[in-house]
Amino acid sequence: MGSKSSRPGWLKGKGALAAIILVIIVIVSSVGAYVLLDDDDIIFDGGRSVKTGDLVRVNYIGMLPNGQVFDTSLYSVAIDNVTYPKSLFFGFRGDQSKYSTLNFTVGQGQMIDGFETGVLGMKVGETRTIVIPVEDAYGPANESKITTMNLTESVPMYKEMSVDDFEAYFGETPTSNKLYTDPNHGWQVWTTNVDKKTVRMQNMATDGATYRAHASPTDPSYGWNITVNIDNTNQMIIVHHDLDSSSAMAVKGMDGVSGRLYVKSVDEAAGTAVIDRNNQILGQDLTFTITLVSIG
Which of 44, 46, 191, 265 is least surrounded by Cβ atoms within 10 Å, i.e. has the fewest? Predict the structure, then answer.
């Protein structure tokens, strides 16, 4: 965690900003609700507070607005999913040796702007909770990556796509008369004809069957169930997505063979779900609980 290259993406600076950064800071007692120091390596220095240019060591917990932890320097927090529920894409690093304090020089752009501002004035052993607004955190989400999906949708039984689109979607080079698995719906697809530019195929869904949509071939935590009905008259597959209000911020999936997405919200009355392909920390006010371990 000490070097810039080893830090998670949220820690990287966004470049110099001309505007004065505003960060809401709530000071929490170091013996209060959050205990961020499970060791004895606090180095007291007579009460000096952090200023620009100081090299600091901190422990931290980073949380989304719903309280889910998306990153932490503490192994004890990383393994505790009851007290500290994790975000959908929380990256567990492994054994305890992979967790240590975060070290950085204040004012050098190594951190997101609000985090650097938030530690200014802290003293060794002090714990703060800071709420960093979007503009001083990781910036806005890409709205083009947020779409609304009908919980019941119709998919053609027969379709065409370009060879390039097929390879991007399926992750394979198309061959005529071969079965593939649709990565977003889970059913099999039969390629009826492939020429230099176009792939013609048939979706081989079975009436009444259940499939796993947006699943991962290696991680069962990705995806959700769908049931299908076949409309032979109109040559359509009617897809029913098994999502409800409890799925919001709790269900994730793979987009094609390489991307990721999550269910941002579900409107059961309208029969729709909002799907977000952004990183979860984009477009969010982020909360960090930080303990200063040492200065210098």
Answer: 46
